[in-house]
Request: fold
Amino acid sequence: MLRFLSVQDFVIVDQMELNFVPGFTVLTGETGAGKSILIDALSLVLGKRGDATEVRDGCDRAEINAEFDVSELPELLDWLQENDLENEDDSKSTCLMRRVIEINGRSRGFINGRLVTLQQLRAAGEKLVDIHGQHEHQSLLRSETQRDLLDNFSGSCELVKKVSTAYLRWQNLHQQRIIWEKNVAVFMKEKEQLEWQAHELATLNFSLDEWQVLQNDHSRLSHVVALVEAVQVSIETISEGEFTSLTQVNSVISRLRNVLDFDTDLRTIIDLLESAQIQLQEATYELSRYQQRLDVDPKKFQEVEDRLTAIYAISRKYHVAPGELPSVLNVVNEKLEIFSRNGNSEEIAKEERVTLDEYLKFSQALSVVREKSAKDLSRQVTSVMQTLAMAGDFSVMLTPLKSGNVHGIEQIEFQISTHQGAPLRALVKVASGGELSRISLAIQVITSKISKASTLIFDEVDVGIGGRIAEIVGGLLKKLGTERQVMCVTHLAQVASAGDQQWQVIKLNDLTKDGTVLSRINILSTKERIEEIARMLGGKEITETTRKHAAEMLRMSGRL
Reply:
């Protein structure tokens, strides 16, 4: 149940705070006063799309806050827990909703103080409040609206989703099979080419490690003569002959040792020279080993040349550097894997048949539910129609389709007979504006009874009716108010008099120096209700007669 709503800088509302109570509340006011602004603000905080035009002129942002008692909404409590959006206070029976719209059009939503997406805000809002708009009777003529109404009434939304999902999957597989069969020659040629490429690259058996080794081997074998000469000269310079590096270092060490007693600081220098002596000896040893490993075998060189030639030939063929060939093989194998996963037309056809069977199973189950619910909805709407002084019948007709679609295997059509004994005909072809309004209201009253939301809002759904029918409508909404929290924006005195409480929306332009138009909501006392209902009955000139009439209407509704 909605407990509190605050609206700041929204359209023509500068600041408004309202405390809500159970029962049936009516909102009234002169045309243009902004009676629907409260509904619009509430719709925004419940996830409706908004834009910068809803920010009051001269302000940076609009903000709406709503507080709900959710103690009797277990489905919402479970949803909040699943999405980690529970109220952190001791009482988890309260849900706080907040919406901010900036002047640049950006919007933010919050649930219990945590930032959420618009989708999450809407998901929570659908479980809290059920809003019936003033133009719903117009959309009632559309076949998709009629289908959605029946499915919502039957509670088969999950089954509807399964039908839709199965149908789309079946159609996708069907298209895959058609494309495969139409282009099978092209696909097979591409597959054969990929298989040949995979074989060619795999036969090459090339790796990045081998590439590094081959490059090193080729460089060494190509310059083996120069390497042998350089190594031999180096060995001779260091250790062979009369005036080698080692001989000269040894001579220096010997001379310094002879004078070491004269200055011990020479010890550090002698140590360095001895270290150099050891390193020269080790270098000579390693050069000798390297010299022994140098291969001057022309056969080995030719093998390396042939291998490099083969690798370069393949790399030129695939227009890549040699080092990229392993990646090319991976790509080819991945494409072949896709062919393997997609299978062939027979495999696709088999899966297509399985998916079609699944679609038919779900759609047939949906048909059973729809047939039963169509009878129930027809009976209940007919009953309310007769209460609203329509003597005919209402019927939901299900006509099998030649081929199913994403919505199922039948066409749904609302039909009525305008008087007793008249044949049923499509609603779109028969109903007048007034009849359509009453049928729409009847459906809304019935569907609101099965809504899980604890708050129901009717925004001028009584358009197109009046007199005794308006009095009956007021009674229907009043009865709903004993079961749920009900709010109704109305221009009819008969409906207003049925409310447990009445709020008046007024427009003011004398509160600001610049003449800015503002909207206010006043909670009316009994005396004020008489005046407001009298205005609704008689217009600007309110007489004692209209006041007495207004008081009598309140008395008849049990409000006096």
Summary: The chain has 20 helices and 15 strands.
